[in-house]
Specification:
alpha+beta; Chorismate synthase, AroC fold; five-stranded antiparallel sheet; 18 strands; binds flavin mononucleotide
Length: about 350
């Protein structure tokens, strides 16, 4: 559907070439200091048309906050944020042709109606709304010193050899391709530009870390934290897989290699990625996300049109050569939303928590 979350819940609206996109966030507690600069900064990181590693579609993505904030603080009412679409070019899109690997095909067959303009609702233009909701989640998490950081550790066939503890999140923040490994910044850029020049696209891999998570986040059994994270991240366009902690690698290990031993109230390693039994254990929550290459490429490809005819299609228009780059910002936002939701849900998980809240307020 178009909503995500239980206590911290957002609904997104809008299409790629409609008038606007946006979100309504319900469940943000009252009294959180509203940081408009953070909201705009996160949107700016995702916004298109900033450099040659993203689509040339230039959008300002200026957020307007319509409700739920008064005199600089959240009021507990739904917060609605709207972002206008200003640089649409619908004539670039064929009314009747399905782009290979794009959701044009499945949306048409599911709904029987087609907003072909920029992919309509299936376009990742919608992901700006997720980033706006994610910024609100970050404002809440900040109050608990929880921070979510992300960056790119692999593009195409190039992967960083660094361990996750060596990733440079500060470098990634200011890198045009959000590279977590300074030494690979140029190689990542070269790979993307090589694919772009060849009228092609390329896949990428993203690492996300939740710093300083509180122990106890996650609602067993059907809303385990890792399953919620997977739900949130797999819902981002073009994500094909995620891993928590050592993920797939742990299936090649002995228990003695994979087990995170405990000493002096600390884990000596973090193969679990900070989640045990669907509940955060207080260690970093580490997630890898795998993005496929952008479906829209400019090479001739076989496809079909709405009439069912086989055709050779050479697409025109503006597209990201590597969606994993801007996608990393969206993943970061979705993780923040998951953690904010888990934080609010956990407040009523045991009597002590509840007593602390109500006794203090008596
Ligand atoms: C930030 C971001 C930007 C994207 N930009 C494009 C794009 O310019 N062209 C395109 O064909 N797909 C783009 N995509 C991916 C498609 O939206 C997506 O692959 C498509 O809807 C099919 O869905 P699926 O890959 O999740 O199965 C983008 C994805 C993200 C996360």
């Amino acid at each position: 559907m178009n909503s995500f979350g239980v206590r911290f819940k957002f609904t997104s609206f809008g299409e790629s070439h409609g008038q606007a996109i946006g979100c309504v966030v319900d469940g943000m507690p009252a009294g959180v200091k509203f940081d408009f600069d953070l909201l705009q900064e996160m949107l700016n990181k995702r916004k298109p048309g900033q450099n040659s590693f993203s689509t040339p579609r230039k959008e300002e993505d200026k957020a307007q906050v319509l409700s739920g904030v008064f005199e600089g603080y959240t009021t507990g009412a739904p917060i609605s944020i709207i972002i206008m679409n200003e640089n649409t070019r619908s004539k670039d899109y064929e009314k009747d042709v399905f782009r290979p690997a794009h959701a044009d095909f499945t949306y048409y067959h599911k709904y029987g109606i087609r907003d072909y303009r920029g992919g309509g609702r299936s376009s990742a233009r919608e992901s700006a709304a997720r980033v706006a909701a994610g910024a609100l989640a970050c404002m809440l998490l900040r109050e608990f010193d929880i921070e979510v950081v992300s960056g790119v550790f692999g593009v195409g066939k190039i992967d960083s050899c660094l361990s996750s503890d060596e990733f440079d999140f500060d470098h990634a923040k200011n890198s045009e391709v959000f590279a977590l490994d300074q030494n690979l910044e140029q190689s990542f850029k070269d790979e993307i530009l090589k694919a772009k020049k060849a009228k092609n696209s390329i896949g990428a891999r993203v690492f996300t870390r939740v710093k300083n998570p509180i122990k106890g986040l996650g609602e067993p059994l059907y809303d385990k934290l890792d399953s919620k994270l997977a739900h949130a991240i797999m819902g981002v366009n073009a994500v094909k897989a995620i891993e928590i902690g050592s993920g797939i690698q742990s299936t090649y290990m002995y228990g003695s290699e994979n087990n995170d031993e405990l000493k002096n109230d600390r884990f000596l390693s973090n193969h679990s990625g900070g989640v045990l039994g669907g509940i955060s254990n207080g260690d970093f929550i580490d997630i890898k996300t795998y993005f496929k290459p952008t479906p829209s490429i400019f090479l001739p490809q076989q496809t079909q049109n709405i009439q069912g005819e086989n055709i050779i299609y050479e697409l025109k228009g503006r597209h990201d050569p590597c969606v994993g780059i801007r996608g990393s910002v969206v993943v970061n936002a979705m993780v923040a939303i998951c953690i904010a939701d888990a934080l609010l849900l956990n407040a009523s998980s045991n009597l002590n928590n509840l007593k602390q809240i109500y006794k203090k307020n008596k």
